[in-house]
């Protein structure tokens, strides 16, 4: 081999290769520093390797522990305390229900449904005056308000690539803890022109939380989305649909519209609670049959689906063409509402419904957070990656039961891995995790 003057000598090349190998072995996290770099990863296993994103790492102390119930406002969070103090004395005096993993547990609730508890009765119109009814469908006829819960999923590029290839935008209900774990994935939603709504910090049953806990779950989820994407949502979806007038009031004080659904694919429950893949495809098929029979000819629909596992995303991909056949339009929920400034930051715009269906599916959706430079190898993964508790509670009365299993990022190697299992072992473990 002819070594030109500008090439490194073979010896230097070998040494630097060794150095690279050593640094990779000592630090198994993938390196990626920008949304574009993340979006270019096509292999979900690679995409799910953890990485360090300095803006999140540096802000961790201003947030609750990832995947832990945000029970309180952090002591140093002056803005959080001030916001909460501005309305906490007027929160409706409704007692928390059940336990965090099942608000129906041990709850002896009056049949008159005094709290407009969705989990009990699918109630959408608050009993208390001054509260806005929940959104459960979209006003435009023959239109599907297309939404996905529980993201960002660490390995979502195949799914988001598909959406891009179809010029299809959707509403993503992101969990704060996932946004902190997978910030570059979250940024892709904005870059691609999707709408982001909040789906709490740790995905517990919200009617079981304390007043301050309910506030903190919502507050830190929208702070996480703001930190990572530059925008502050004005919509949220309660995990499991679990909302009552107390929670509606607190969400309303944070400027959050409550969005639920009327149709459920049960895709997030597939593989547990007796729900099979065949049940999920039957739910999709039944929904499509209803649409083809004219059920949404005067008011459009919202269907519960998830960005949670390969199964939920692949099934969404498989069914997108079939949904296109029975709906005239499939649009983000904000678009179906002509909500052109869906965030507190009013310089970010989404198209009107008319613009969207005429082909302008995206207005200005650039990532507002500039990409941080790569951190040298000293960074720790952005979180401990602990698994959230998932509910195994009995199905709630009247509930569509959004019983999700949160699959944790494969790259989030547990801190307890040590000794011979460190470095290489952990990297192998991480690969096997999927
Ligand atoms: C309201 O919140 C403030 C600030 O967190 C706190 O000092 C006060 O005790 C709260 N009041 C009630 C009634 O919860
Ligand atoms: C789901 O997994 C299969 C098999 O690995 C893969 O071919 C497919 O692209 C994945 N789908 C999505 C949406 O990630
Ligand atoms: C959205 O705006 C269009 C006009 O551009 C109007 O026809 C439609 O009724 C509006 N929809 C809603 C839900 O406001
Ligand atoms: C965003 O788009 C709107 C409407 O197209 C435009 O008026 C506005 O100037 C754009 N803002 C930025 C910052 O690009
Ligand atoms: C909106 O304004 C904020 C604050 O001025 C700025 O940081 C951000 O980049 C802007 N976003 C867009 C999409 O123009
Ligand atoms: Zn969920």
Task: Outline the structure in words.
Helix content is 34%, strand content 7%. The chain is an alpha/beta fold. The protein has one domain (54-72, 79-105, 114-408): TIM Barrel. The chain has a four-stranded parallel beta sheet with strand order 7-8-1-9. It has a three-stranded parallel beta sheet with strand order 2-3-4. Strands 5-6 form a two-stranded parallel ribbon. α10 packs across α11 (245-253) and α12 (277-292) packs parallel to α13 (310-326).
What is the domain tally? 1
* Topology, number of strands: 9
Mean pLDDT: 83
CATH superfamily: Glycoside hydrolase/deacetylase
What's the level 1 CATH class? Alpha Beta
What overall form do the CA principal axes indicate?
globular
> How is the CATH topology named?
TIM Barrel
Query: In CATH terms, what is the architecture?
Result: Alpha-Beta Barrel
Order of strands side by side in the largest beta sheet? Answer: 7-8-1-9
Report the major sheet: 4 strands, parallel
Q: What pattern of helices and strands is seen along the backbone?
A: HHHHHHEEHEHHEHEHEEHEHEHHH
Cα-atom Rg, whole angstroms? Answer: 22 Å
Estimated share of beta-strand residues: 5-15%
Q: Give me the number of helical elements.
A: 16
Bound molecules: 2-acetamido-2-deoxy-beta-D-glucopyranose, zinc ion
Distance between the termini: 41 Å
Helix amount, in percent?
25-40%
Low-confidence stretches: 1-28, 367-434
Oligomer: single chain
Supply the helix-strand structural class.
Answer: alpha/beta
């Amino acid at each position: 081999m002819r070594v030109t003057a500008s090439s490194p000598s073979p010896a230097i090349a070998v040494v630097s290769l060794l150095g690279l190998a050593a640094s990779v072995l000592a630090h198994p996290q993938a390196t990626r520093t920008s949304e574009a770099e993340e979006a270019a990863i096509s292999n979900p296993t690679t995409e799910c390797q953890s990485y360090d994103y300095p803006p999140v790492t540096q802000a961790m102390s201003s947030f609750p522990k990832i995947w832990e119930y945000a029970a309180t406002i952090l002591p140093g969070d002056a803005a959080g305390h001030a916001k909460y103090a501005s309305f906490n004395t007027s929160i409706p005096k409704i007692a928390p229900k059940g336990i965090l993993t099942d608000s129906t547990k041990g709850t002896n609730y009056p049949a008159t449904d005094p709290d407009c508890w969705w989990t009990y009765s699918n109630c959408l119109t608050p009993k208390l005056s001054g509260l806005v009814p929940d959104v459960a469908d979209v006003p435009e006829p023959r239109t599907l308000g297309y939404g996905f819960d529980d993201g960002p999923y660490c390995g979502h590029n195949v799914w988001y690539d598909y959406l891009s290839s179809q010029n299809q935008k959707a509403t993503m209900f992101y969990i704060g803890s996932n946004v902190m774990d997978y910030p570059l994935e979250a940024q892709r939603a904005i870059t691609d022109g999707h709408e982001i709504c909040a789906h709490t910090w740790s995905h517990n049953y919200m009617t079981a939380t304390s007043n301050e806990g309910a506030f903190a779950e919502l507050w830190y989820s929208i702070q996480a989305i703001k930190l990572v994407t530059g925008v502050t949502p004005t919509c949220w979806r309660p995990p499991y649909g679990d909302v009552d007038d107390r929670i509606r009031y607190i969400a309303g004080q944070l400027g959050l519209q409550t969005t639920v659904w009327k149709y459920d694919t049960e895709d997030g429950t597939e593989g547990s609670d007796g729900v099979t893949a065949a049940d999920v495809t039957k739910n999709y098929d039944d929904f499509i049959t209803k649409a083809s029979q004219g059920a949404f000819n005067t008011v459009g629909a919202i269907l519960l689906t998830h960005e949670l596992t390969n199964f939920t995303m692949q099934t969404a991909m498989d069914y997108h063409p079939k949904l296109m056949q029975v709906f005239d339009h499939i649009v983000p929920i904000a678009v179906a509402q002509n909500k052109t400034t869906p965030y507190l930051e009013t310089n970010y715009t989404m198209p009107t419904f008319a613009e969207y269906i005429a082909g302008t599916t995206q207005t200005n959706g650039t990532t507002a957070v500039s990409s941080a430079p790569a951190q040298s190898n000293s960074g720790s993964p952005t979180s401990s990656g602990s698994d959230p508790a998932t509910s195994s509670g009995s199905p709630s009365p009247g509930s569509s039961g959004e019983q999700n299993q949160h699959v944790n990022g494969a790259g989030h190697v547990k801190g307890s891995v040590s000794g011979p299992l460190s470095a290489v072992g952990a990297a192998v473990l991480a690969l096997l995790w999927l």
